[in-house]
Design goal:
- The complex is a heterodimer of chains A (188) and B (484).
- By secondary structure, chain A is of the alpha+beta class.
- In chain A, 41% of the residues lie in helices and 14% in strands.
- Chain B has a single domain, classed as Formate dehydrogenase/DMSO reductase domain (Formate dehydrogenase/DMSO reductase fold).
- Helices cover 68% and strands 0% of the residues of chain B.
- The longest helix of chain B is centred in the middle third of the chain and has 38 residues.
- Chain B is globular and about 75 Å long.
- The chains are: A alpha+beta (188), B mainly alpha (484).
- Chains A and B meet through strand 2, helix 2, helix 3 and helix 4 of A and helix 2, helix 6, helix 8 and helix 16 of B.
Chain lengths: 188, 484
């Protein structure tokens, strides 16, 4: 969980992990499956666009963004209704054509808009928090060719912090998945 | 991959014969798409851009001057008068808001329907939404007369107003709808930008441009294309799309409530919400076409904005244009069927009264002219599409003017009848908003990738199984590096 890793301590110096590069999304997925089946957990894949099916291939859980955001949408609706009810009935009684100070019908538009507003902003904030962004420094930025992932590169990383990580056997596993190249990523 | 302007002949000739069903033509590789889109932002600024920017910015300055004059003199500098108390200000407000709607429709609704063709136009369409909302917001804020009191529109506790807003008023619903729409659209657009800004950051770092790398680095929030991040990102993006879809429908419905909840004949109709939404989509798609064809021509993006896109958007224009035409007919039928003399008078007067010319322009631009899109070669022809998109923009502006001015200018008592003529301030402010809009749009083209790279590449990966498509390699040899 990368929650608030913006404030997290720096990654320790030394080897960060092993990285392999693949020539396309299909080979990357195959490699992810092989690594997942070998029991590695601290893995991550990098690609210029989200690849369909990569979550399963890496064994990632479903994103929590939606489940938490729905709580905020209820909050938005509640705030809107309370605001309109309190201001109309207690805060400032404004007589308009003998209409009731509070009723559901004229309250629907504002309730809807505030529900939308809070769900939208909470999904964005949750996405950033769960991803640990913004985070401007990361060992991977120093890896060879990593700056071309956004262009057309497909990478797979196994972190050293994975209990199964062993520089020789992990490298052998990665070499068996037909990568274009492999490299050791250092943190400094 | 030079972005030349020598591509002019190829877009003026009918494109029907070179129709290709795919969304990205020319079998580009991922790298070529990156290059083609990023070069616009990284390369030397084309002379046309400076010319366009100088013109737009001058027109924008005229708007600033007009608004300043209005601010210091009062709302009386507009042509609004006693029966026509709402005139060009609200017309232009609804016009600009409507234009914004196509951007959200393309980015959200077509995303939910898995319409992959949207990928190369959604970024520019969303930018259009934001800038159109900015143009629209000018009018209600300036119409208050004292824009420095704009916070009175929001439930902000303060000492000088000392009262709460009337939340039962459709004008308050409008405040919430427009501000929610503006801010959610901005966030949606920015979230879509993050991966592409990260691509620009990495390219700037390789090219050794530290200032650009720093700026794009800050705005891309340290994005590193991780699969774990993409999972949350995709969920967030799906949610925003799912939220924006009812939002965009609600916004123009609520705008129409400004009229529909009143007691003015010609406004007080239940058909307004769907009628306004259809009109908004109609006008918005026309504006997207106008902008995209100019962008495509000026930046040489024929491979990414293809006849398939024109065809699809023109089908939507045809469909929504017919919905709008049906709404015009329904209004007349209901006016007759209601047997209400005021209702009947307003609609007869609308088509045959002093504003008959506005009504005629509206019907010919909105209902009659889009009918040519039944014929496929017209749908895929660049020039026809461009001219039609201008027609629809004109027609939809007149629709709002007709609804607003023709319903108001003949009040219940003939002694209160009047006629609206815009003042020069009205005219110059409205022209000025186009300068404002184009200034923002040109800045966007210059500093932000105008095509959503990560989405286009996703669509390319999805069509990689088609014969003749290999986005990893492409047909032409990949030229090294991104240095230009």
């Amino acid at each position: 969980m990368g929650l608030m890793s913006f404030f997290a301590p720096r990654v320790p110096k030394g080897v960060y992990g092993l990285m392999a590069e693949y020539d396309g999304p299909d080979t990357l997925i195959e490699a992810c499956k092989a690594v997942r089946d070998a029991g590695y957990k601290k893995t991550d894949a990098f690609s210029p666009f989200p690849i369909h099916g990569i979550e399963d291939a890496l064994g990632l859980p479903e994103s929590k963004v939606g489940k938490i955001a729905i709580l905020f949408s209820f909050t938005g609706a509640t705030i809107a209704l309370l605001m309109q009810w309190w201001t109309g009935v207690y805060g400032y009684k404004l007589i308009v054509g003998g209409k009731p100070f509070f009723a559901f019908e004229p309250s629907i538009p504002i309730t809807f808009e505030l529900t939308v507003l809070l769900s939208a902003f909470s999904s964005v904030v949750l996405m950033l928090l769960l991803n640990g962004l913004p985070r401007f420094h990361h060992p991977l930025f120093g890896a060879k060719d990593f700056h071309r992932v956004g262009d057309d590169r497909f990478m797979l990383v196994i972190e050293k912090s994975d209990p199964k990580f062993d520089e020789n056997s992990t490298r052998q596993l990665l070499e068996g998945t037909h990568p274009k190249s492999t490299q050791v990523v250092e943190s400094n | 991959m030079a972005t030349t302007t020598a591509t002019l002949p190829s877009i003026t000739k009918p494109l029907a014969q070179e129709l290709n069903p795919s969304l990205v033509t020319g079998n580009l590789s991922y790298h070529e798409v990156t290059d083609q889109v990023c070069e616009i932002v990284e390369g030397k600024v084309h002379r046309n851009w400076y010319i366009g920017f100088a013109i737009s910015f001058t027109i924008f300055l005229m708007m600033v001057g007009m608004l300043g004059y209005q601010l210091f003199t009062g709302v009386g500098v507009w042509g609004n008068n006693a029966p026509v108390a709402w005139a060009w200000d609200i017309t232009n407000f609804v016009f600009w808001i409507g234009i914004g709607h196509a951007g959200t429709l393309i980015s959200a609704v077509l995303f939910l329907f898995r319409q992959k063709w949207r990928t190369s136009i959604n970024r520019a369409a969303e930018a259009m939404t934001l800038f159109a909302v900015a143009c629209a917001a000018i009018y209600p804020v300036m119409h208050t007369g004292r824009p420095w009191r704009t916070y009175w529109l929001f439930p902000v506790p303060n000492l000088d107003l000392n009262m709460w807003q009337n939340f039962r008023s459709p004008l308050m619903w409008d405040v919430f709808a427009i501000s929610t729409y503006g801010s959610v659209s901005a966030v949606f657009w920015y979230m879509g930008l993050i991966p592409d800004l990260a691509t620009l950051r990495d390219r700037a770092a390789v090219a050794g441009d530290k200032t650009r790398a720093l700026l794009y680095g800050i705005f891309s929030l340290g994005w590193r294309f991780s699969a774990r991040h993409w999972t949350n990102y995709e969920k967030m993006y799906l949610l925003l799309a799912a939220i924006s879809t009812p939002l965009v429908l609600s916004v123009h419905s609520i705008v129409s409530f400004d009229f529909a909840t009143s007691v003015i004949p010609g406004w007080h109709t239940t058909i307004f919400p769907p009628y306004f939404v259809a009109g908004a989509v109609f006008s918005g798609f026309a504006m997207v076409q106008t902008l995209m064809l100019v962008t495509r021509w000026a930046l040489g993006l024929e491979n990414l904005i293809t006849p398939k896109h024109l065809d699809n958007m023109n089908k939507i224009i045809l469909a929504t244009g017919m919905i709008v035409g049906y709404a015009y007919a329904t209004e007349f039928f209901i006016a007759w069927y209601s047997a209400n003399q005021y209702e009947r008078f307003v609609f007869f007067n609308r088509a045959f009264g002093p504003y008959w010319w506005a009504y005629a322009i509206m019907v010919s631009c909105n209902v009659l002219s889009p009918q040519i899109f039944w014929y496929k070669p017209f749908r895929t022809n660049v020039m026809v599409t461009f001219v039609m998109s201008i027609f629809v923009n004109i027609g939809m502006w007149f629709e709002r003017f007709v609804i607003i001015a023709s319903s108001l200018h003949r009040d219940f008592m003939p002694s209160s009848w009047g006629y609206f003529k815009p003042s020069y301030v009205d005219i110059c402010t409205f022209i000025g908003t186009f300068g404002f809009f184009m200034t923002l749009f040109l800045l966007f083209l210059r500093f932000i990738p105008c095509i959503a790279l990560s989405e286009v590449k996703g669509a390319m990966a999805a069509q990689a199984h088609l014969p003749g498509h290999d986005p990893v390699k492409g047909t032409t040899p990949v030229h090294a590096g991104g240095h230009h």
